[in-house]
Amino acid sequence: MATVRVTTAQAIIKFLKNQYVRRDRQEIQFFAGVLGIFGHGNVAGIGQALQENPDFPYILVRNEQSGVHLACGFTKMKNRMQTFACTSSIGPGATNMITGAALATINRLPVLLLPGDIFARRNVAPVLQQLESPSSQDISVNDAFKPVSRYWDRIYRPEQLITSLPEVMRVLTSPADTGAVTLALPQDVQAEAYDFPEEFFAPRSWHISRWTSDRFLFAQAVDAIQRSKRPMIVAGGGVLYSEAAEALARFVLQTGIPIGETQAGKGSLPYDHPQNMGAVGATGTLAANRLAHDADLIIGIGTRYSDFTTASKTAFQNPDVRFININAAEFDSFKHSAIPLTADARLTLEELAEALKEYNVDAEYKALISTLKEEWEVEVDRLFHLHNQPLPAQSEVIGAIWESAQPKDVLVSAAGSHPGDLHKLWRAHQPNTYHLEYGYSCMGYEIPGALGVKMADPSREVYAFVGDGTYLMMPSEIVTSVQEGIKIIIVLVNNHGFASIGGLSQSLGSSGFGTRYRMRDQKSGQLDGEYLALDFAANARSLGAESISACTIDEFKQALQDARKATKTTVIVVETEREVRVPGYDSWWDVAVAETSSTDSVKKARAEYEEALKKERYFL
Ligand SMILES: Cc1ncc(C[n+]2csc(CCOP(=O)(O)OP(=O)(O)O)c2C)c(N)n1
Ligand SMILES: [Mg+2]
After folding, report:
1. Which of 501, 575, 576, 577 to mutate to test the pocket of ligand 1 (most atoms within 8 A of CB)?
2. Looking at the whole model, is its pTM more than 0.85?
3. Residue 102 CB–ligand 1 contact under 6 Å
4. Which ligand 1 atom is nearest residue 470's CA?
5. Cβ–Cβ contacts within 10 Å for residue 423, how many?
6. Relative to the alpha carbon of 419, which ligand is closest?
7. Helices (H) and strands (E) in the chain, counts
8. 508-533 pLDDT tens trace
9. How many other C-beta atoms can be found within 10 angstroms of the C-beta atom of residue 485?
10. How far is CA 231 from CA 59, 306, 322, 369, in A?
């Protein structure tokens, strides 16, 4: 057997470079490169191997967590057909990636994490940054990746790669099992050499399957749709990952069935498609939520039914409602006691269209769909043009971005009051233009996520929509965008703290406690003094970006035009009126209120909470 003698780290890079994925007629190199930060736990191992492979890009990021976010933004934009590996040192560099790992796994996004680990040899222990355990020498901080990884392994001997790396690829490329994959790499083992079989490094193509569903269950599903008078589709991220948008459009046109979109599924149909009712659930539109309320059949496609989608299990109130779930993951297809079609979304929609040639919803339902749709678009126009004074409302800022963006441009957001407002208001023209990380809703995803999106498709303008809270948590990848010469537009909404959690706190009787960016007042001892004087525009400039401060909506619109023309990452800072919010539309979200309290407003909120809880349902 021909062999090649290389180190563990060199073998990993050599292997990663030669992995391809194939779906339909597309074949693509799976790893676009490696993102990371070096420390003593990887500099002489993975770092050395990367230096030897200049054709395999290495990108230095500012924080290991935001490196993983960047990879997530990139792979989501690529419909999971390409991703990055992320390298870190041991200890804090490694644990910084845990938040990113959870984000990747929850959003079902493939990312390979390569944290350095403590010496396998052990004689020099405890090494710098080593967590010691009195009960075992086989524990390091990297064990904390286990619950947030879809596959986890530790490489004690170089030859373990020969059995581990194929498993890594199986999981990363599986539509059902994908997520974060962690290979913990003890720092001494990274530098150890072994005679690897040459064949191990031959180019390999991983086929991404499109599975069909079980025939018996498929027939049941067809029958259930035929008997349904008020069916509704809930379109989730799986529609986009499967590239099923066209098949969905054909299916709904043929059957007259309306759709509601989850955060991950927004853009499944163009916003102005007559049967696209928009967002569904806790942050849903009146149109989608009214239909969901009475639907007798929910066809969930590629959705994991988060509490935002089900409005904490209150969205579907028809006593006879049943579910059909089309999902690549068996775990999801069985939810809500559905008829589980564990299968590819595109293929299944094509098959359903073929089997349901005679089916169409009745005229009364069609009329209701179009009335609700028209009313909703009027509401969006109203919120886009509120003319609030003296400061604009956030909905006007969203309207201005939408009006200045091209149909194929991408909006990226994740946490704060933005996801709810955007879910309702953003008018997506096509798939992969509305990019919300709402599985983990992680503050700090937006800027690195947007950078990843832009790297995945440089032909589009990419907007990161961030709050002041989020910006302060993770502005640092602006530096990476400057380093790489990759421009994004960052819209920073300044509302002096947490409009989202502040509003939530108010609605639960706690008056926004601890959610405003204010100085500690010497007399009250509380955070209710002057507003903190933060110069975000100067901060952005100090990191190498252009920045523009906009005080009025007209100035903001001009800034958007200027930012589009700029060649460098540009941060637009706009102050908004925190209390002018986008309302909720027949929706609810379960956030538990204190059962006992000395505050009257909390007692009142608790009473309302107990009433609202009565609508929560089991689907058995
Ligand atoms: C990492 C992280 N920490 C905490 C939270 C909880 N949280 C959700 S939104 C939010 C406030 C966000 O503030 P900002 O970015 O200013 O947006 P705004 O609410 O003002 O729209 C917080 C603290 C979170 N989602 N992520
Ligand atoms: Mg804020």
Report:
1. 501
2. yes
3. no
4. 15
5. 26
6. 1
7. 22, 23
8. 999 999 999 999 999 999 999 999 99
9. 9
10. 48, 20, 10, 11
